[in-house]
Design goal:
The complex is a heterodimer of chains A (273) and B (394). By secondary structure, chain A is an all-alpha fold. Chain A has ten helices and no strands. With 394 residues, chain B is mainly alpha-helical. Classes of the chains: A mainly alpha (273), B mainly alpha (394).
């Protein structure tokens, strides 16, 4: 054991382990969030929501994942097979990789890049590629329409997202997320959402559009194009697309907290543990 | 004009190839062609089994051909081989969202053949259940419209109301959906004891719930307004020309209602307004539906206040065998004018039964108004017509 432990804080083991731990955390967070969303909307809509698996239905996400693992992975006959299968990967990797730069606590960051903001913008925009690949590779009219919508939406919201970050970068004088968090130390009145309030709103809205969540779920187009670019996916490939969506959703929240809400900083210094 | 109809017909029949040939010149300045797309019959927003053959230019619909027939169960032919009373369960299956009006139409036609006299209580109970049937159909229609615009909650609120009305129907008729309640000469059974009081209580509650649960939730919603205002606009002239009835006609401002203009049964004694709207778009159809629910509530209150006593079934003999001739029954169903033409040759079974369902006629709208709209606008337009699969495929 001792011989294994002494390698843990050396590269690349430290890198792989910490990144794996963060992914584990994020994907479990996705399960909790799905559960919360389903329960809350159920109570609004006069329903009970999931209440069969486990105590009060709490194990429903686990059961869902198990079901997805055991499902057959179908691909349409006329699909462009390689592109079709590569698309979920191309969607998931960018959403996961940006978590490398998110600082959780002083020193708790996988890679403290000095250009982390640029890295975040650059890598998230690769997601549009995955959407196009999924839509084109399925060779279905519905998928193609969904993919075109998705690409148009993600590319057009990229610009306001980038521009809304410029104020924060100027205030902090750095592109590193750790530096930006450190610059916001000293109480919630020094967090950037106050001086940058319109920018914060713009960033958050653009982020919702990036993550294709509800007011911006045109690429999914539930009622007319029935799932859009992911209509032909099933089993684990579909699960991977969903995981990518949840990872990017959590990512947008994490980046918003880092840039505008002081990251790990407490609202008042006295509350610092 | 005829050749245009032929074109659409042949395109609908042979699909892709005919569509291409019919529009050789649909290319834009970049030489890009349009895309053909088949929507349905297995599609969550197609109100059952409707197939739309679409020609898309980007997301703009250039051509829209509805193809019916995926739920064809030859109800007219089956009706010819059954004795007169046994046709009523068939009519139940035509418009399964508003079955009671379908029964009513057929029974009216046969009673006209027989020249039968109906007890007043039977007439009143028929009108009462018919108005409940209209509420039971209109409120989920609003819910479906919202569901297709992406709001999931209204449909569940709508089904809560439908569920409670279904409980009344279960108590009165013995069934929750396929009632077989209106019979030739009256109704199957009188209202159970205490039922009018329960109905009154429910109707009062619904009147109070309608505003907060539906109108306040929907009407001022920005997304609802921007996705329905001006979408699917029909002019009154066009609507009359196409023979539309029901909500799609009344939302253009034409105040035609069979209950008002050709009153039947107990409707002669009732005081109600024909709800119209000027706009003729999807938003107007929503307002007309809400208004009609309010009018139905008003009518139900009038019927319950003044419910005549007496028998609910006329004595027409054991065997129904009308003389040679024909009879027409016209009723206002939740979707428009439903008419039944029954021809008798003097035997036990009808010689011919024809069902004129509003859905089949109103469906013409799709060809006319969908081209020029975006693809997602098809959903609110379907909500405006609100067709039912069983009713357009007879």
């Amino acid at each position: 054991m001792g011989t294994v432990l002494q390698y843990l804080d050396q590269e690349p083991f430290r890198f792989l382990l910490s990144f794996g731990a963060i992914l584990f955390l994020v994907l479990n967070l996705a399960a909790v969030l799905t559960m919360a969303e389903r329960k809350t909307s159920a109570y609004i809509q006069l329903r009970y929501g999931p209440n069969r698996v486990g105590p009060r239905g709490l194990l429903q996400p686990a059961a869902d994942v198990f079901k997805l693992f055991s499902k057959e992975n179908l691909s349409p006959n006329s699909a462009d097979r390689w592109i079709f299968l590569a698309a979920p990967i191309a969607l998931f990797i960018p959403a996961a990789v940006v978590w490398l730069t998110v600082p959780f606590a002083p020193g708790a960051v996988v890679a403290d890049l000095n250009i982390a903001v640029v890295f975040f913008i650059a890598v998230t925009s690769i997601g549009a590629l995955g959407v196009i690949m999924a839509g084109y590779g399925s060779r279905s009219n519905f998928s193609l329409l969904g993919a075109l919508r998705g690409a148009a939406q993600m590319i057009s919201y990229e610009v306001p997202m980038l521009l809304s970050l410029l104020g924060v970068i100027m205030l902090a004088g750095s592109l590193s997320l750790v530096d930006i968090v450190n610059a916001q130390a000293g109480g919630f009145w020094r967090w950037y959402f106050l001086p940058q309030f319109p920018m914060f709103i713009a960033f958050y809205v653009a982020g919702l559009a990036e993550a294709r969540r509800v007011p911006f779920d045109l690429p999914e187009g539930e009622s007319e194009i029935v799932g859009g670019f992911m209509v032909e996916y099933s089993g684990m490939t579909w699960a991977l697309i969903q995981a990518a969506e949840f990872a990017s959703m959590a990512l947008i929240s994490a980046i918003t907290a880092t840039l505008f809400f002081g990251g790990w900083q407490p609202p008042i210094d006295a509350l610092d543990l | 004009m005829l050749s245009e109809e032929r074109r659409i017909e042949s395109a609908a029949l042979s699909g892709r190839a005919a569509g291409r040939l019919a529009n050789p010149d649909v290319r834009d300045e970049f030489g890009l062609e349009t895309m053909d797309m088949s929507m349905g019959p297995q599609h969550p927003a197609m109100h059952g089994l409707l197939r739309l053959i679409l020609e898309l230019d980007g997301e703009t619909v250039v051509r829209c051909d509805p193809v019916m027939g995926y739920l064809h169960r030859s109800k007219e032919k089956i009706s010819e081989n059954r004795m007169y009373p046994a046709v009523i369960p068939i009519t139940d299956r035509i418009d399964y969202m508003n079955n009671i009006a379908m029964e009513y139409g057929y029974v009216l036609a046969v009673e006209k053949l027989l020249d039968a006299e109906i007890p007043p209580r039977a007439d009143a109970v028929r009108a009462l259940m018919n108005e409940f049937g209209r509420i039971m159909s209109h409120i989920p229609s609003i819910g479906f419209l919202m569901l297709e615009l992406g709001a999931f909650t209204p449909i569940l609120y709508a089904f809560r109301e439908r569920e409670r009305i279904q409980n009344f129907f279960e108590a009165v008729t013995g069934a929750r959906m396929m009632f077989h309640y209106i019979r030739i000469g009256g109704v199957k059974a009188d209202l159970p004891e205490g039922m009018p009081e329960q109905m009154w209580e429910y109707i009062e509650g619904l009147e109070q719930r309608l505003q907060p649960d539906f109108v306040d939730l929907i009407e001022w919603n920005e997304i609802f307004i921007s996705r329905t205002r001006g979408i699917g606009k029909i002019t009154p002239e066009k609507a009359v020309e196409m023979g539309l009835t029901g909500v799609p006609l009344r939302c253009t401002g034409v105040p035609f209602d069979v209950r008002k203009h050709y009153p039947y049964g107990w409707y002669k004694n009732l005081d109600f307004d024909v709800i119209t709207d000027e706009a003729g778009d999807v938003e107007a159809s929503y307002r007309v539906r809400i208004g009609e629910v309010k009018q139905s509530i008003r009518m139900i209150k009038q019927i319950l206040e003044d419910l005549p006593e007496g028998e609910v079934m006329a004595d027409l003999g054991r065997r129904i065998r009308p003389d040679e001739g024909d009879g027409i029954g016209r009723v206002e169903s939740a979707r428009g004018e439903f008419a039944v033409h029954v021809v008798s040759d003097g035997s036990d079974t009808p010689y011919r039964v024809h069902y004129r369902t509003p859905c089949t006629v109103n469906m013409q709208l799709l060809q006319e108004i969908v081209p020029g709209h975006y693809l997602p606008d098809i959903m609110p337009i379907m909500g405006l017509i609100d067709p039912v699969s069983g009713a357009w495929d007879k």
